[in-house]
Amino acid sequence: MLLENSLRQAIDNNELVIHYQPLIDGTTGRTVGVEALVRWLHPERGLIQPMEFIPLAEETGLIVPIGEWVLRTACAQNKAWQDAGYPPVVMAVNLSGRQFRQPDFTGRISKVLAATGLAPEYLELEITESIALEDVEYTIAILKELGAMGIGIAIDDFGTGYSSLSYLKRFPITTLKIDRIFVQDAAKSQQDAAIISAIILLAHNLNLKVVAEGVETPEQRLLLRERHCNMMQGFLFSRPLPAEQVASLFDFCW
Ligand code: G
Ligand code: G
Ligand code: MN
Ligand code: NA
């Protein structure tokens, strides 16, 4: 297949780029993290969004080298910002199931940290509920190792999977990311606002931090702030941006 062959060469041809979206502290308005989001700068087709090539990458297994490239590049970028004197931020990196289940996964992560010189507390790995629940015992073992290394773990798209709440107390995670479908209508829908309130309370009672995704309006921000949501992410603050552009926001206060 044409796209598959060109995706195979995308890493070697330096066609992959990462855009970084700020995570804002709900109280101070400061950027406390960024999420790494990969894009493919195709020589003929232009900028291709991950929705259009991540599924193909998953099918073909190319997600493993792509994911490793993203992890290494994002960690190196974060260290470079710190070395340049920017206020430190946590780098959030999305993991695919295949990557998570790679042999010696935690060994690979520690090699990346050692090679880039990034301290583990400045890395947070995002996994979805479906990845985490595929093999619960494996997940617990891996998350324990990552936790012991000092790396943060976020459950991404929280509330959209088969949220079995019983796993929350068994998985040593640090953060819940409320899916943007709940944030979208929170200022208009009492049901969505109630779900958000419940997720924030749940997270806080479990000593987890909570991030709201897809914050687009001042009304949504206010509602989340009133409910003591720790962090927010969304177009209201910033779209995902190239490294050079996002770093200038680290000193900014929303
Ligand atoms: O901006 P957005 O279109 O960037 O991202 C769309 C989807 O692609 C999201 O679900 C996001 O989690 C996923 N995605 C973006 N970057 C990566 C990556 O590096 N690895 C994996 N596995 N998924 C990613
Ligand atoms: O699935 P995950 O949460 O990793 O993916 C993040 C996705 O959400 C990316 O595609 C990113 O571009 C997108 N995104 C980030 N902020 C907003 C927002 O405020 N509104 C919408 N609609 N999408 C957003
Ligand atoms: Mn994510
Ligand atoms: Na998400």
From TrEMBL:
Domain EAL: 1-254
Domain of life: Bacteria
Name assigned to this protein: Phytochrome-like protein cph2
Gene: cph2_9
Part of the whole protein covered: 309 to 562 of 562
